[in-house]
Specification:
Helix content: 25-40%
Radius of gyration: 18 Å
Shape: globular
Largest sheet: 9 strands, mixed
Distance between the termini: 48 Å
Structural class: alpha/beta
């Protein structure tokens, strides 16, 4: 039987984080790992009730603010499940889709990165869904809509901790190093929110976000050049400059 863990990083927004945590109390989830990245002087107690379905609950507190990608990596390595689902603290898990994650993990044994749809997001043509692809297809399909990241546990970290908020760079390395493939799936795994004050998703358009994305894109461009993917390398170099320009002209 494939075991499933859920990792949720938390930063200040405890009210929405509690809703996100409670949404995980559904059949099919074996373990919940919460990583609190809030500075210790601002940290509050998360009064989480006893779960009916979850066998194990782990709460981990970072000593200082390290960022969402670092927190996800830490939760990933603390998780004991075969499959790890990553949620933001302003998301809620769609309960009836959990078993589809376990089914996909068994059906697609060569896949190490699963990308599910999210509720509240519009998707265009997705004829590529349901097919395992090599790691570089993560880049070619990176604009196919906001996705929920699920990975198969192995010895490599799924995100680059230093690149706050740039999940794509880490996932590319994860698939490349593990030798696993990636797959996009049509099931909706989470309810996606962009309007929670202080939530992780609400940071997408800030000036700091643009700077961090530009750094991640530059790292991707270098990685792709080394791997001989020169055309994709140029694409991400141009994307880096675009976000860098947005950072320089932004006032917020």
């Amino acid at each position: 039987m494939v075991s499933i863990s859920v990792v949720i990083p938390v930063y200040k927004n405890y009210a929405s984080a509690l809703d996100s945590i409670l949404s995980c109390d559904v059949a099919g989830i074996d373990e919940l790992v919460v990583v609190d990245d809030t500075p210790s002087d601002l940290r509050k107690c998360l009064n989480v009730p006893r779960f009916e379905h979850i066998k194990e609950y782990k709460f981990i507190a970072n000593k200082r603010n390290r960022g969402v990608t670092f927190s996800r990596n830490r939760g990933y390595f603390c998780a004991s499940g075969d499959i790890v689902i990553f949620l933001d603290s302003d998301d809620q898990l769609v309960s009836d889709s959990v078993e589809s994650v376990r089914f996909s993990a068994i059906k697609y044994l060569d896949a190490f990165c699963f990308l599910y749809r999210s509720e509240g997001v519009s998707y265009g043509a997705t004829s590529f869904e349901g097919e395992c692809r090599e790691w570089f297809h993560l880049l070619r399909r990176s604009n196919s809509g906001e996705r929920t990241v699920v990975v198969r546990k192995c010895g490599f970290k799924p995100f680059k901790g230093a690149l706050r908020g740039h999940e794509l760079r880490g996932l590319v390395s994860y698939c490349k190093k593990s030798g696993g493939k990636c797959i996009w799936l049509p099931e909706k795994l989470r309810s996606y929110s962009v309007n929670v004050p202080g939530g992780l998703s609400s940071l997408r358009t800030t000036k700091e976000r643009a700077r961090l994305i530009s750094i991640g894109h530059m790292s991707l461009a270098k990685f792709l050049c080394v791997e001989g993917k020169y055309r994709l390398s140029v694409v991400y170099l141009l994307k880096c400059f675009r976000y860098l320009y947005a950072y320089l002209v932004s006032r917020s």
